[in-house]
């Protein structure tokens, strides 16, 4: 519901100068800038941790985050913000990446926490969460998509570059939804730790996928998918 026409109360349109007035009001509601969304999967972490606080980055994971941060900095872009999942592995990845991007504000959110977005099709035998997880996590991850993945606000004058540090399931689901692909196919994609996925959202609402799970900036012996 971000199409300009949906933001105008047509009942208030003046009968005599309606068309001119409508065109003017539409102009004020149209997005002018492009949003660049960089979705970063957290680095490798300790799988043996029982609680989230124990699932900290491994030494290799910290190296991966350094490489990702260096890669983002090398792009020479003026990043507006880093929004990250509140889970430990995403928070630690963000802290390391942010050292390469001084001055970029960091925002933590529970919406981007890992979870089960929607039952995958076809199903897989090695991962079968309880059905209730899809209802609980799915609603939250869908809310994250609607909250963060949209065209620029009409007041935004310049293109923006935003980083989101979160999790494989969340990123894969968001990519499917953003490209209007069946979201049930999210599990058919695979993402490396510390990988970069780049979405572009044009002023007219069209979305393009520039890169998916890029880790070409990492040496082969540093690449993992755990």
From TrEMBL:
<dbReference type="Pfam" id="PF00300">
    <property type="entry name" value="His_Phos_1"/>
</dbReference>
<keyword id="KW-0472">Membrane</keyword>
<protein>
    <recommendedName>
        <fullName>Serine/threonine-protein phosphatase PGAM5, mitochondrial</fullName>
        <ecNumber>3.1.3.16</ecNumber>
    </recommendedName>
</protein>
<dbReference type="InterPro" id="IPR051021">
    <property type="entry name" value="Mito_Ser/Thr_phosphatase"/>
</dbReference>
<dbReference type="GO" id="GO:0090141">
    <property type="term" value="P:positive regulation of mitochondrial fission"/>
</dbReference>
<comment type="similarity">
    <text>Belongs to the phosphoglycerate mutase family. BPG-dependent PGAM subfamily.</text>
</comment>
<dbReference type="GO" id="GO:0012501">
    <property type="term" value="P:programmed cell death"/>
</dbReference>
<dbReference type="InterPro" id="IPR029033">
    <property type="entry name" value="His_PPase_superfam"/>
</dbReference>
<keyword id="KW-0378">Hydrolase</keyword>
<keyword id="KW-1210">Necrosis</keyword>
<dbReference type="GO" id="GO:0005741">
    <property type="term" value="C:mitochondrial outer membrane"/>
</dbReference>
<keyword id="KW-1000">Mitochondrion outer membrane</keyword>
<dbReference type="InterPro" id="IPR013078">
    <property type="entry name" value="His_Pase_superF_clade-1"/>
</dbReference>
<keyword id="KW-0496">Mitochondrion</keyword>
<dbReference type="GO" id="GO:0004722">
    <property type="term" value="F:protein serine/threonine phosphatase activity"/>
</dbReference>
């Amino acid at each position: 519901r971000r199409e300009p026409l949906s933001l105008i109360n047509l009942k208030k349109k003046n009968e005599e100068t309606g068309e001119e007035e409508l065109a003017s009001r539409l102009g004020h509601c149209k997005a002018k800038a492009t949003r660049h969304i960089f979705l970063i999967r957290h680095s490798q972490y300790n799988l043996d941790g029982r609680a989230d606080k124990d699932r900290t980055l491994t030494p290799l994971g910290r190296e991966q985050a350094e490489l990702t941060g260096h890669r983002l900095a090398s792009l020479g872009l003026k990043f507006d913000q880093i929004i990250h999942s509140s889970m430990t592995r995403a928070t630690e990845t963000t802290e390391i990446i942010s050292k390469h991007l001084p001055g970029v504000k960091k925002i933590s959110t529970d919406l981007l926490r890992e979870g089960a977005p929607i039952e995958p099709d076809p199903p897989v035998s090695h991962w079968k969460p309880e059905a209730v997880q899809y209802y609980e996590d799915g609603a939250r991850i869908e809310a994250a998509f609607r909250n963060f993945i949209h065209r620029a606000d009409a007041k935004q004058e310049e293109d923006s570059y935003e980083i989101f540090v979160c999790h494989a399931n969340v990123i894969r689901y968001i990519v499917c939804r953003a490209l209007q692909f069946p979201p049930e196919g999210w599990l058919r994609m695979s993402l490396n730790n510390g990988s970069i996925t780049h979405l572009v959202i044009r002023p007219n609402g069209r979305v393009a996928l520039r890169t998916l799970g890029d880790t070409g900036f990492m040496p082969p012996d540093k690449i993992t998918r755990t």
